[in-house]
């Protein structure tokens, strides 16, 4: 007897995820998979009329950091609010397995420093009922979720597991270390890891200010990791770096050699830095050449600037390092706003040193020429004349005074927006050029990370709303391809990302004219009362995971069909 049809989506405009032209059809799901497309006579246990709506595959996000949140939460928000039905976590070389009991604090401090997840939150939320990576996956499998999760094996955890304090001191791995790392990679990939992630950027530091243990890992060590994937016959390499050891071409050539030896694919984060404004072009050209030569080394790039939200409710603001602000930081928002409105307190904070006592490592790189009133609705494309420096010059004030007053607006709920990358010329033309290259993968939303001052997990919604509906730069079918089959294929998730018979029954039903993003806000729903930034979306009529409706009009249904996906099984 044929399996009962769980849901039929009728009369929708199907955008199948391949980039093909839209067409009208019904879609039926049974047993968690798509079983029929066309005019379907059979009735489903649930019937959904999608007339006038777009029916797309569920979105696949290959760059997230839900490693911690997955341990205590069944809802991978905000990503699941933005159409994501599968997320790959464990990027940037940081994570929690493998880990010996005596090294747990090291990995927590590293995650806190690199990805801004508070240590107190992780101390309360992580169970630590694992040591190996396979045991980590088994632990996470005990919880049902609203989306599927996949995990990369983090290089930093592997290095600390094998080398202990020598890894923290950035000592070179010896032949025995590399052999053990290779074996751990093979075992982890066979257990379900989707590959290995690593970091080579000085921006990634532990809470103590120590550089990530993987920063100076030699080519031989990276090759050992990659060969572990070859031994297992699966997995891809994810890398983030500064590309200056000693220069982009030399560093990329090293990556090419690693990929050539292991025969696996690689992806790397690509952004336009404000201090080396043209390097991204060189890297994109090197990537294009590698692909032409038969080596899949693809860039992952964001659809807009990656920016910090500085505010009284967030974890950072321009004055959070001053002695006076620190003395009132514990107060509830309304009380803080009242105190900060006192002219004497204002004068004192504006005269304090904001740098010496700051816990914000990027503070010294920030400039008021690249700070803007975020506003409501949110303005992700402010102009040069909108900068706090420009406002100050027009009004005869200092940028610090302008910043101070903006923080008090709307009862202290507004933010100052500070683009860190991709905004050199006060526009996002670099992002447009990156995305115009079909070799580029859309991503780096960092869902689950930077919970107190960066909120980019809504990239899928912004991509559709800005580049699709507002600018009409690319067609809906091309943008949906970038969010589905392209990302799924890059991760080795060949069972999803496309509306086709036999593919996984993950769908979004979109009201194209209503696709929009809500106002960022702060909530205190993490373990130990930790704060995080969230942002909802409009236009998502229905999200379906494995044939079960998880969200209707942005509201959770209670269904939790999401699983931990193990890589070998997906391939």
What CATH calls the topology of the largest domain is TIM Barrel
Q: Any idea how many domains?
A: 2
**What's the name of the CATH homologous superfamily of the largest domain?**
Metal-dependent hydrolases
**CATH class call of the largest domain:** Alpha Beta
Low-confidence stretches: none
Which structural class do the helices and strands define? alpha/beta
Main beta sheet: 9 strands, mixed
Total helical segments: 21
Using only CA atoms, what is the Rg? Answer: 23 Å
What overall form do the CA principal axes indicate?
globular
CATH architecture classification of the largest domain: Alpha-Beta Barrel
What percentage of residues falls in helices of 4 or more residues?
A: 25-40%
Strand content: 15-25%
Mean pLDDT: 95
Describe this structure in words.
By secondary structure, the chain is α/β, with parallel strands linked by helices. The protein folds into two domains: 60-305 and 429-492, TIM Barrel, CATH 3.20.20; 308-421, no CATH class. Helices cover 33% and strands 19% of the residues. The chain has 21 helices and 25 strands. The strands form six sheets. Strands 1, 2, 3, 4, 5, 18, 23, 24 and 25 form a nine-stranded mixed sheet that branches. Strands 9-10-11-12-13-17 form a six-stranded parallel sheet, with helices on both faces. Strand 23 and strand 24 form a beta hairpin. Helix 9 (248-262) packs parallel to helix 10 (279-292) and helix 19 runs parallel beside helix 20. The radius of gyration is 23 Å and the shape is globular. The model has no long low-confidence stretch (mean pLDDT 95).
């Amino acid at each position: 007897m044929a399996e009962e049809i769980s849901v039929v989506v009728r009369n929708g405009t199907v955008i199948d995820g391949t980039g093909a032209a839209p067409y009208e059809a019904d879609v039926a799901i049974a047993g968690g998979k798509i079983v029929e497309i066309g005019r379907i006579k059979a009735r489903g246990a649930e019937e959904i009329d999608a007339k006038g709506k777009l029916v797309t595959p569920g979105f696949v996000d290959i760059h997230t950091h839900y490693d911690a949140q997955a341990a205590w939460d069944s809802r991978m928000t905000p990503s699941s609010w933005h159409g994501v039905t599968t997320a790959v976590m464990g990027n940037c070389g940081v994570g929690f397995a493998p880990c010996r009991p005596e090294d747990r604090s090291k990995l927590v401090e590293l995650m806190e420093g690199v990805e801004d997840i508070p240590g107190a939150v992780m101390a309360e939320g992580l169970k630590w009922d694992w040591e190996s990576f396979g045991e980590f996956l088994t632990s996470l499998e005990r919880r049902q979720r609203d989306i599927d999760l996949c995990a990369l094996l983090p290089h930093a955890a592997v290095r600390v597991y094998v080398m202990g304090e020598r890894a923290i001191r950035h000592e070179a791995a010896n032949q025995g270390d590399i052999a053990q790392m290779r074996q751990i990679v093979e075992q982890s990939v066979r257990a379900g890891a989707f590959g290995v992630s690593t970091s080579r950027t000085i921006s990634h530091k532990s809470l103590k200010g120590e550089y990530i243990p993987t920063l100076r890992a030699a080519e031989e060590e990276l090759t050992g990791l990659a060969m572990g994937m070859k031994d297992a016959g699966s997995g891809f390499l994810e890398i983030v770096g500064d590309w200056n050891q000693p220069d982009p071409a030399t560093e990329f050539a090293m990556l090419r050699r690693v990929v050539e030896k292991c025969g696996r694919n690689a992806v790397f984060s690509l952004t336009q830095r404000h201090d080396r404004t043209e390097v991204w072009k060189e890297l994109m050209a090197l990537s294009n050449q590698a692909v032409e030569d038969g080596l899949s080394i693809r860039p992952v790039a964001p659809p807009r600037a990656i920016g910090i939200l500085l505010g009284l409710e967030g974890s950072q603001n321009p004055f959070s390092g001053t002695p006076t602000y620190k003395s009132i930081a514990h107060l509830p928002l309304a009380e803080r706003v009242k105190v900060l409105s006192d002219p004497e307190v204002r004068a004192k904070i504006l005269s304090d040193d904001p740098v010496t006592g700051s816990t914000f490592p990027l503070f010294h790189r920030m400039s008021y020429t690249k700070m803007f009133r975020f506003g409501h609705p949110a303005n992700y494309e402010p102009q040069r004349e909108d900068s706090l420096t420009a406002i100050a010059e027009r009004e005869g004030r200092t940028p610090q005074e302008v910043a101070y007053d903006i923080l008090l607006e709307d009862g202290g709920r507004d933010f100052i927006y500070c683009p860190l990358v991709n905004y050199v010329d006060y526009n996002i033309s670099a992002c447009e050029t990156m995305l115009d290259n079909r070799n580029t993968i859309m991503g780096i939303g960092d869902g689950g990370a930077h919970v107190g001052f960066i909120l980019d997990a809504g990239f899928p919604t912004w991509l559709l709303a800005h580049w699709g509906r507002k600018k009409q730069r690319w067609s809906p079918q091309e943008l949906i391809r970038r969010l589905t089959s392209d990302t799924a294929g890059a991760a080795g998730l060949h069972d999803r990302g496309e509306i086709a018979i036999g593919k996984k029954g993950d769908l979004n039903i979109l009201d194209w004219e209503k696709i929009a993003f809500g106002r960022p806000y702060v909530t205190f729903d993490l373990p130990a009362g930790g704060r995080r930034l969230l942002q909802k979306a409009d236009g998502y009529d229905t999200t379906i995971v494995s044939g079960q409706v998880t969200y209707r009009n942005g509201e959770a249904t209670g269904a939790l069909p999401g699983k931990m996906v193990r890589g070998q099984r997906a391939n």
